[in-house]
Design brief:
alpha/beta, Nucleotidyltransferase, domain 5, seven-stranded mixed beta sheet, five-stranded mixed beta sheet, 6 helices, 31% helix, globular
Length: 218
């Protein structure tokens, strides 16, 4: 099973290609300007590195949030176009869950954390047990005080924790985690209808709150 995974939920864009649980190729770069056309250039680059034709792809996966409002929409739009045109199966993955898949430390309580701006954070709790990543909470929108309450018992993932002064495990190439989580979901038959694929936001954007503008409507 070839899995093509995309992530644009943070300040980095990443694309990864896996065959089952084997990493074949990938690319990550920093860029505030995220566009679908740019993502497709990276997809072509990754497929070229691995010598895999896009028609060989079995599953296309992406992180659907939480994360950057604009960034998440880019990955969702790219996956919709790719999957619809080539009739590929789609798997959607939480950005926080993808981060947890990049730190397979048995027994520790893992807490991926993303900067949600406005002095808020996105976070969730996970744990690896017997080689499987277990979700222990929903994805949450948190204030610093909420983060402080769990700080003594968890391993933070991602540099957002550093902004609050906590030690953290750095996470890079989130698309790799997307692919690993997507493999497990695909094996369980947990696919997403490409027409129903949409970003997951835990709060309204600035535009929606101040001007009543609908940011995304599937």
């Amino acid at each position: 099973m070839f899995i093509l995974a995309l992530d644009t939920a943070t300040q980095f864009l990443s694309v990864s290609l896996f065959k089952e649980d084997k990493f074949l190729a990938g690319v990550e770069l920093e860029g505030k300007k995220k566009t679908s056309s740019r993502i497709f250039v990276l997809v072509d680059e990754v497929l070229g590195q691995a010598g895999v034709d896009k028609r060989e792809i079995d599953v296309v996966a992406c992180s659907v949030g939480p994360g950057s409002f604009t960034g998440v929409r880019v990955a969702v739009a790219a996956v919709k176009g790719f999957a619809f045109a080539l009739r590929k199966k789609v798997v959607s993955v939480s950005t926080l869950e993808a981060m947890a898949y990049l730190c397979p430390v048995e027994g520790r309580l893992l807490f991926p954390l993303l900067d949600a701006r406005r002095n808020q954070f996105y976070g969730a709790m996970f744990r690896w047990k017997d080689g499987r990543c277990q979700r222990l909470s929903d994805d949450l929108l948190l204030d610093p005080a909420d983060v402080e309450r769990v700080a003594g018992s968890v391993l933070f993932l991602g540099d957002a924790a550093g902004k609050l002064g906590y030690t953290y495990f750095p996470v890079e190439g989130i698309a790799k985690g997307v692919a690993m989580a997507a493999l497990e979901k695909a094996r369980r038959g947990e696919f997403t209808d490409v027409l129903k694929l949409k970003p997951v936001y835990l709060r309204l954007s600035d535009a929606e709150q101040t001007r009543g503008i609908v940011v995304y409507k599937a």
